[in-house]
Amino acid sequence: AGAYVIGTGRAADRQKALDFGANEFVDLGNDTLEDVAGVDLVFDVIGGDIQKRSAALIRAGGTLVTVVGPAEARPADGLAVDFVVESDRAQLSEIVKRVRDGRLRTNIGKVSALEEAVTTFNASERRTGKTVIRVRP
Predict the structure, then answer these.
(1) What is the pLDDT at residue 94?
(2) Which pLDDT score, from 0 to 100, does residue 114 have?
(3) Where are the beta strands (DSSP E) in 24-135?
(4) How far is CA 35 from CA 8, 32, 45, 129, in A?
């Protein structure tokens, strides 16, 4: 059984979310997030106001999962879970294998050298995707 996925983000993220497998997309700048209701699970990677608004959409008995620290919001009648991933060499090797095999896709927005890390993370431009810092040239 699969999940019915509703992605959220900026308008520029719409096609990327759909390409990654979302069934629907809510543009947080133009659409009304609150029009989506009765979801089983919210996976939050943003926190703050978006997390609070998203928690209100969860059905009774649903779950909020967040990776941005302790949950600031909780579903009205459900569970809130926060976690931190602590990976080991074997897990990282498996992730690399899945990326190489095409079984795992990611969105890399920018790659920078270690010497440019502070400038890269302090840049004011908004970018889509993850930032990778190269430790070795």
Answers:
(1) 93
(2) 93
(3) 24-27, 39-44, 58-66, 79-82, 108-113, 130-134
(4) 12, 6, 20, 26
Q: What single-letter amino acid sits at 108?
A: I
Q: β-strands 108-113, 130-134: how paired?
A: parallel
Residue 118: alpha-carbon gap to chain centroid: 23
In the numeric block, which tokens belong to residue 62? 């649903």
Distance of CA 114 to the CA centre of its chain: 24
* pLDDT greater than 90 at residue 137: no
Give the CATH superfamily of 6-82: NAD(P)-binding Rossmann-like Domain (3.40.50.720)
Q: What are the structure tokens assigned to 131, written together?
A: 């930032």
Q: Return d(Cα 102, Cα 48) in angstroms, integer.
A: 33
pLDDT (tens digit, 9 = 90+) per residue, 37-87? 889 999 988 888 888 988 989 988 889 998 888 888 888 888 888 877 788
Residue 129 pLDDT:
80
Give ranges for CATH 3.40.50.720 in the chain: 6-82
Tokens representing 56? 């209100």
CA-wise closest residue to 6 among 27, 21, 23, 30 = 23
